[in-house]
Design brief:
This protein is mainly alpha-helical. The protein has one domain. The chain has a two-stranded antiparallel sheet.
């Protein structure tokens, strides 16, 4: 049973590890890590009917790729925001716990010293 639980936990970590670090932040620029390349915005070419029709087809293709890319970007940003908030809350809770521990120790020491 212990082995099964360990294997299950390991599988969970491997499957969802990408969500633990969804994007990366470098020089104040955040980029998603698992969304692929950002689709380049196509240009409208009005040289003639054929090139115009091709540019419309390219724009339609780009629109679908961009939809997927930006949905992924938003998802990764939300995951990272959640990780940051949870981490900050955990650190703040640790600070409060440490402060309370010190406060209790100070009060006990003050009582001992006052005797």
């Amino acid at each position: 049973m212990k082995y099964f639980i360990s294997t299950t936990a390991l599988a969970f970590v491997v499957l969802f590890s990408s969500e633990l670090n969804a994007g990366s932040l470098t020089n104040n620029v955040w980029v998603p890590s698992h969304c692929g390349a950002k689709p380049e915005t196509p240009l409208v070419d009005d040289k003639d009917v054929d090139t115009y029709n091709k540019s419309v087809a390219n724009i339609n293709d780009w629109q679908q790729k961009a939809k997927s890319y930006y949905a992924c970007l938003v998802n990764e940003a939300n995951v990272d925001n959640g990780v940051v908030i949870e981490s900050a809350n955990r650190e703040q809770a640790e600070y409060k716990k440490n402060f309370e521990t010190i406060k209790v120790a100070l009060e006990a020491a003050a009582k001992k010293v006052d005797k």
